UniProtKB/TrEMBL annotation:
The lineage of its organism: Bacteria, Bacillati, Cyanobacteriota, Cyanophyceae, Nostocales. This is 8-oxo-dGTP diphosphatase. PANTHER family: 8-OXO-DGTP DIPHOSPHATASE, NUDIX HYDROLASE FAMILY PROTEIN. Its EC number is 3.6.1.55. InterPro entries: Mutator_MutT, MutT-like, MutY_C, Nudix_hydrolase, NUDIX_hydrolase-like_dom_sf, NUDIX_hydrolase_CS, NUDIX_hydrolase_dom. Keywords: DNA damage, DNA repair, DNA replication, Hydrolase, Magnesium, Metal-binding, Mutator protein. Residues 8-137 form the Nudix hydrolase domain. It catalyses: 8-oxo-dGTP + H2O = 8-oxo-dGMP + diphosphate + H(+).
Length: 148
């Protein structure tokens, strides 16, 4: 059997489903010039060596949006292969603690209701997160004693 060396690179990504106190979710729009530019996503990013998914999510949200969040319960983990990339995307419910979201590494930010998510165009892997959000009842209660 002839194996090819065209296996796409694999990235492990943490994604935040950030809930406001009003029950809305934060989404951001990817920069037009970048990969999957103009599409909406749940914010997050690539895990660094030695970092847990939860640490990755907190760090990425601070770096990309200038916000402090509490990372709560696991929502879903998705393995998805694009033509040039394989990702393992782990999403957690998160709570906004402080800081106004800023467009540091994205073009736009919106707080939306769950039933509005279908009005935005997301990458295929993110659409699986939307389905998981809809299946999980509603905004989870986070344990405030674990928030830092």
């Amino acid at each position: 059997m002839n194996q090819t060396s065209s296996t796409p690179p694999h990235k492990i990504i943490g994604a935040a489903v950030i809930w406001s106190e009003q029950g809305q979710i934060l989404i951001d729009r990817r920069p037009l010039g970048g990969e999957m530019g103009g599409l909406w996503e749940f914010p997050g990013g690539k895990i660094e060596p030695g970092e847990s998914i939860e640490e990755c999510i907190k760090r990425e949200i601070q770096e990309e949006l200038g916000m402090v969040i509490a990372v709560g319960e696991h929502l879903t983990t998705i393995d998805h292969t694009y033509s040039n990339l394989r990702i393992t995307l782990t999403a957690h419910h998160c709570q906004h603690l402080s800081g106004e979201p800023q467009t540091i590494e994205c073009d736009e930010i919106r707080w939306v209701w769950v039933n509005e998510l279908e009005n935005f165009t997301f990458p295929p892997a993110n659409t699986e997160i939307i389905e998981a959000i809809k299946k999980s009842s509603k905004q989870p209660l986070l344990d405030r004693s674990k928030q830092q």
